[in-house]
Amino acid sequence: MAYLSLKGINKIYPNGFHAVHDFNLEIERGEFIVFVGPSGCGKSTTLRMIAGLENISNGEFCIDGKRANEIGPREREIAMVFQSYALYPHMSVYDNMAFGLSLQGVDDDVIDRKVQETARILGLTDYLDRKPRALSGGQRQRVAVGRAIIRKVGIFLMDEPLSNLDAKQRVTMRSEITDIHRKVGATTIYVTHDQTEAMTMADRIVCMKDGYIQQVGTPYDLYFKPVNMFVAGFIGEPPMNFVTSEVKGGKITVGKAELDLNAVLKADTLASYEGKKMVLGFRPEGTELGEQAESFVLNADVELTELLGDNTNVYVDIDGVKSILKVDPHDTPAMDTNIKFSIPYKNVYLFDGETEFVIEEGRK
């Protein structure tokens, strides 16, 4: 296990494109860190700088307290799993897993012991004689993971390793990779654009946008305590609903309804936003059908329903404002009907209309 420190890391390409801005992060030994964000946000570029596959333009990267900027990939003792399996098609599963150890001159009996042990952990014992083409996508990805963990290095880097798998295989591999991490204990950095992978696998999540870190925290923190609208909208499925309105007389307008913000904000904070734009945010699952106490109550027209089994997504129109509600499937309202729904005050998020940062001070 290794401790990693990234201080003021930047990546600027020769054409002037600034891919990563002032990236600062301390990663504890044995942590499972997930970099998440949309395509082009800089997460894979950061991973490649950690691996030594990209030069760091400025800033300092340390492994166990020692500067590693100028150290080559091989000397960093890092194992990497890529989006593509990158297996040797002419080699068996056994030989693919053993190849790296063979290059290091490890004795055959030691290689055999390590391959057998790794295959047992990954459930590949019955497939060691097969070629990659005879394996499913999930099995091939496990071989790729096995080839990485067999080296017993202190740092694992994974760059969207599940993106080529179907939905069922992704669910299975998520749990398998998490279980492998617990058994191996190596410091792991995992890159994905899938917020579900981030939420289910990470000890901490680094959420990125346009090369900047937006927020670092536990899955709980990013879901329940987002620092800005981007994080609030990126984490959660379906995404958070947002309604922008000008504060007038301590109230904001959603459709034709006026919501009194005195219920959720202290008077001095509310007064400071008078005449300014504010954004109301609420998660689809943070709503309740009907009129509830201690809530904002709204009327809406039901436009579409999606039964997903454990819940139903209800697409509604609130006098021109489109939103999504997540409800119990047994309470699914009929399409083309008018309903009342409530947003409990505790489930209301408020954001500054200019900065897009969450309004925390002054909440009741």
What descriptive keywords fit this protein?
single chain, 364 residues, alpha+beta, Rossmann fold, OB fold (Dihydrolipoamide Acetyltransferase, E2P), 2 domains, six-stranded mixed sheet, 25% helix
Uncertain runs: none
Order of helices and strands: EEEHEEEHHHEHEHEEHHEEEHEEEEEEE
Domain unit count = 2
The general outline is: globular
Can you characterise this structure?
The protein has 364 residues and is α+β, with helices and mostly antiparallel strands. It has two domains: 4-234, Rossmann fold (3-Layer(aba) Sandwich); 241-352, OB fold (Dihydrolipoamide Acetyltransferase, E2P). It is built from nine helices and 20 strands. The protein has helices at 43-51, 93-103, 108-122, 137-149, 167-184, 195-201, 219-224, 229-234, 267-272; strands at residues 4-12, 18-27, 32-36, 58-63, 66-67, 78-81, 155-159, 187-192, 204-209, 212-217, 241-246, 251-254, 257-260, 277-282, 288-289, 295-307, 312-318, 321-327, 338-344, 349-352. The strands form five sheets. A six-stranded mixed beta sheet has the order 6-7-8-3-9-10, sandwiched between helices. Strand 17 and strand 18 form a beta hairpin. Helix 4 (137-149) packs parallel to helix 5. The longest helix is centred in the middle third of the chain and has 18 residues, at 167-184. The radius of gyration is 25 Å and the shape is globular. The model has no long low-confidence stretch (mean pLDDT 93).
